């Protein structure tokens, strides 16, 4: 009797093929699970892992893994205790540290990870830049992180140490590294070989008080002629000496003609502060560069694929310059402009300005004072490939224009951000996006609780014209000039008669019929929405979110909530709880960013009739334990008078009720005995205090930041048995 052949299993594959399969897995937890299958898979997983983030305590050097020999990207910026000098482990103690300890730790890291070419490190001490990067002679990418104050060194000394130890450096990211703008140019001039090798330079740092000026930009671009990516925070305000104007912009295009990515933003635009929706969008002064200069710059950067020009003063009549992008920069796919006026001013059916950039896939518009619904619809007609669209602080945009844009881009648009637009609150924004609600994947709205009926009454607009009508006479019967736009439109461009899709533009009943099946948009299901971002004012409630239009999001996995305002203006909230329990309807929600860092209040004793920040934290965190969260990033509110963002006792008590949490990152400080509350969360694996805000507090001997306290908590956390 013949025996049955053993079935083929995945382990029967040749090692080379199996190794390639495991190497293709990018999710960290999936790779860890694969390593637990058998020893063969463990060896293959370790041999194919190329990226690693270390989270252990620097004191536990005996636990440094030595099995990841193929790692080329190493992240040391989150090593515990967070923010303490990496190569000076005793620097925070009374006996002080020495260079021998720093050299030893650097050599141990090189021994464990011998072929690193990409490094991220928290460089609070100059010793880190002196001893660590030199351990890997083939280092090509470095990102430096520092939220604490700059050490008392001469301008450029820190970067001289870095450049001398990294002769092959090709990419430098300083976007989260606290330093001075005048540290950069001297170091580049003293190290011309390294500067000439740089192809990626990120100087988009929110900590700069004034940003780079014309002379500094001239030196940077002259020293780095081979740059392909340049992101730089500038000073565009003409009230300052050395402001960025015509000369600086021309220098960039002349000295760095190979640029594919160029980001220029005023430092004032990098803050999180929300603008006033009632502002008209125009500033008192105009920017000191002309449209002809922009045309010259764009003509000299023909390889551009991504462009950001976010300034703080008016750039008037910018349409002709943006039109040039379509012909002079044919590879451009992403564009962001701020304070540019005249970006889209169509006359009849003729497109102009940014609407002629037909290759764009991402477009962001901020503070455009003269952009109205007609201009927005023209953008939807011309930029038909847009997958991402962001609009901010555009007062004249209404639900009608935004809804028409969504209808025109229903095939491609999956990422939308609507912020600080007076006529687009929560309900009207969601109503406007109904044509793409089955396709949209990422969304940001402001939680300004309006109602669609209220907006209709205010604007006095009649809705209900049909986008399928292309006859000028029929369409011209509708108000606001929309009829001329659609009536004279070329059928082959906009409404191909052979298409079976039919659009019906009616704010009360919008559907999309496909082959007669009536598979409409008009329901309340956002099937593909995975990420939701919300802004909400202090004291307002989250509970109306579902009623505004987000009742059912079956695949929502991540939410970010940012609360902003001065709670000192409130005696107390109107309700007991903020309303986090309303998120229970989103069954797949596992990750949350709750940012209360822009809430200002009293950290200590509040005046009579006021609530201190601990009671406001209780208001915002009440009910968080009912959610099935796996990861939580929490920013406590702040008292700017004493520069304190600290976890309060009520907050610690409410966080301990999140029994499903595995990762918890508190972006502030906390007392040790408050942290011990968190040990009651059964599956909690990763907890860290991160003071990642400017300026991070320097008093490391306080009970809230002492490294010994953090180490004791982490030791207690690691001693626990985790079921999985």
Strand residue content: 15-25%
What's the total number of strands?
22
pLDDT average, as an integer? Answer: 85
- Helices and strands: which structural class? alpha/beta
Largest sheet: 20 strands, parallel
Q: Report how far apart the termini are.
A: 45 Å
Work out the radius of gyration. Answer: 28 Å
Low-confidence stretches: 91-97, 461-522
Domain COI1 F-box: 13-50
InterPro entries: COI1_F-box, F-box-like_dom_sf, Leu-rich_rpt_Cys-con_subtyp, LRR_dom_sf
Protein name: COI1 F-box domain-containing protein
Pfam family, one: F-box_5
Q: Can you walk through the features of this model?
A:
The protein has 23 helices and 22 strands. The longest helix is centred in the N-terminal third of the chain and has 14 residues, at about 100-110. The model is unreliable at about 90-95 and about 460-520 (pLDDT under 50). The protein has about 725 residues and is of the alpha/beta class. The strands form two sheets. It has a 20-stranded parallel sheet. Strands 15-16 form a two-stranded antiparallel sheet.
Kindly summarize this structure in a few lines.
The chain is of the alpha/beta class.
Which key phrases capture this entry?
724 residues; COI1 F-box domain-containing protein; Leu-rich_rpt_Cys-con_subtyp; alpha/beta; two-stranded antiparallel ribbon; F-box-like_dom_sf; LRR_dom_sf; 23 helices; single chain; 20-stranded parallel sheet
């Amino acid at each position: 009797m013949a025996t049955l052949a053993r079935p083929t299993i995945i382990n029967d594959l040749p090692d080379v093929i199996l190794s390639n399969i495991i190497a293709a897995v990018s999710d960290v937890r999936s790779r860890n699970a694969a390593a637990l299958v058998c020893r063969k898979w463990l060896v293959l997983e370790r041999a194919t892992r190329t990226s690693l983030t270390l989270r252990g305590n620097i004191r536990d050097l005996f636990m440094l893994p030595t099995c990841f020999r193929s790692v080329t990207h190493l992240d040391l910026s989150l090593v515990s205790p967070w923010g303490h000098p990496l190569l000076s482990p005793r620097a925070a103690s009374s006996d002080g540290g020495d260079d021998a300890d720093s050299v030893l730790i650097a050599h141990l890291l090189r021994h464990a990870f011998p072929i690193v070419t990409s490094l991220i490190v928290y460089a609070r001490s100059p010793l880190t830049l002196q001893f660590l990067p030199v351990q890997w002679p083939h280092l090509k990418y470095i990102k430096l992180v520092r939220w604490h104050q700059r050490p008392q060194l001469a301008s450029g000394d820190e970067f001289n140490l870095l450049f001398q130890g990294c002769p092959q450096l090709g990419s430098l990211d300083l976007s989260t590294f606290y330093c001075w703008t005048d540290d950069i140019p001297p170091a580049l001039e003293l190290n011309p070989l390294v500067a000439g090798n740089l192809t990626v330079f990120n100087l988009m740092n929110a900590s700069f008080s004034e940003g780079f000026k014309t002379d500094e930009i001239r030196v940077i671009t002259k020293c780095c002629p081979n740059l392909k990516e340049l992101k730089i925070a500038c000073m565009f305000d003409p009230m300052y000496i050395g402001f960025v104007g015509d000369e600086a912009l021309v220098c960039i295009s002349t000295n760095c003609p190979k640029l594919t990515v160029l980001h220029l933003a005023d430092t004032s635009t990098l803050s999180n502060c929300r603008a006033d929706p009632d502002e008209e969008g125009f500033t008192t002064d105009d920017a000191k560069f002309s449209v002809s200069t922009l045309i010259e710059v764009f003509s000299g950067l023909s390889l551009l694929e991504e462009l950001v020009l976010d300034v703080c003063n008016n750039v008037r009549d910018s349409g002709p310059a943006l039109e040039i992008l379509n012909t002079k920069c044919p590879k451009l796919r992403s564009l962001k402009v701020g304070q540019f006026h005249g970006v889209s001013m169509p006359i009849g059916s003729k497109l102009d300005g940014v609407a002629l950039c037909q290759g764009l896939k991402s477009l962001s518009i901020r503070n455009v004072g003269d952009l109205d619904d007609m201009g927005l619809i023209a953008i939807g007609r011309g930029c038909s490939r847009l997958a991402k669209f962001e609009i901010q602080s555009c007062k004249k945009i209404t639900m009608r224009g935004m809804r028409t844009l969504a209808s025109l881009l229903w095939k491609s648009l999956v990422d939308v951000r609507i912020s600080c637009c007076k006529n687009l609150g929560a309900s009207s924004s969601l109503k406007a996006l109904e044509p793409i609600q089955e396709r949209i994947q990422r969304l940001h709205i402001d939680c300004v609780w309006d109602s669609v009926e209220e907006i209709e009454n205010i604007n006095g607009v009649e809705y209900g014209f049909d986008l399928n009508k292309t006859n000028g006479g029929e369409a011209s019967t509708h108000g606001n000039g929309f009829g001329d736009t659609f009536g004279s439109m070329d059928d082959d461009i906009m409404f191909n008669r052979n298409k079976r899709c039919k659009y019906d533009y009616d704010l009360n009943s919008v559907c999309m019929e496909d082959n007669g099946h009536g598979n409409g948009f008009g329901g309340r299901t956002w099937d593909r929405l995975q990420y939701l971002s919300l802004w909400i004012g202090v004291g307002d409630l989250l509970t109306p979110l579902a009623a505004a239009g987000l009742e059912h999001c079956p695949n929502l996995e991540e939410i970010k909530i940012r609360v902003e305002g001065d709670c000192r203006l409130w005696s107390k909230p109107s309700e007991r709880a903020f309303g986090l329990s309303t998120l229970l309807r989103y069954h797949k929600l596992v990750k949350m960013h709750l940012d209360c860092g822009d809430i200002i209040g009293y950290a200590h004793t509040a005046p009579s009739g006021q609530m201190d920040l601990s009671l406001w934290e209780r208001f915002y965190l009440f009910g968080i334990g009912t959610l099935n969260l796996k990861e939580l990033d929490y920013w406590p509110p702040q008292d700017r008078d004493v520069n304190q963002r600290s976890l309060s006792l009520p907050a610690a008590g409410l966080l301990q009720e999140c029994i499903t949490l595995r990762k918890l990152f508190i972006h502030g400080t906390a007392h040790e005995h408050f942290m011990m509350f968190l040990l009651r969360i059964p599956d909690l694996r990763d907890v860290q205090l991160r003071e990642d805000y400017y300026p991070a507090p320097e008093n490391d001997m306080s009970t809230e930041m002492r490294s010994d306290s953090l180490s004791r908590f982490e030791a207690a956390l690691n001693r626990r048995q985790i079921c999985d």
